[in-house]
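User: Okay, second chain of the day. Same drill as before: sequence in, structure tokens out.
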Amino acid sequence: MDLTQHFIKTKQPCADGFRWFLRHHKDGSNDQDLLDALVDAGRFNDACWLLDQFGPTNETLTLDHLARRHRVRGFVAVAADSVRASSGISAGAQINCAMHLEAGWGIRDGESIHARGAIRSGESLSAFETIRAGAGYGVFAGLNVQVEAWESSARVCASEKPEGLLSGWWAGARDV
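Assistant: Same drill. Structure tokens below.
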């Protein structure tokens, strides 16, 4: 999607974010290039705002390693190593991780969540299709939530119960 100055301004961005956009993308940008630039510049809240306005992309973000303190959203994420985020992870289509996948908050995906290692989530795990950890590894949800709150804050939603689900509250298929 092409994002022009006028189009961005109609979405009423914050003044600081719009000034940054004008300084770095005065001739406009496509949505994926702008998301990449915002993340590279450490403007994670602006990147999340952009995704909230226009929705996730179906582009693929290929990572050798990710260890951020902020949310990762809007991509098909393919990682060559472990993925760790102290906040949440949300992808538009699918998450495929070559090793461990870990988030301090939740992990939410439009399709599937797959890792060759363990999947660990401080809160909920949610995918429309499958959630699958590697052979011999477990799936953990609610690691940062008291057991009494698992039904609301450590939900595990997928088309089928993940093999190796060791913690979290199995909620069945996701509605929305």
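The chain has five helices and 17 strands.

User: Thanks, on to the next one.
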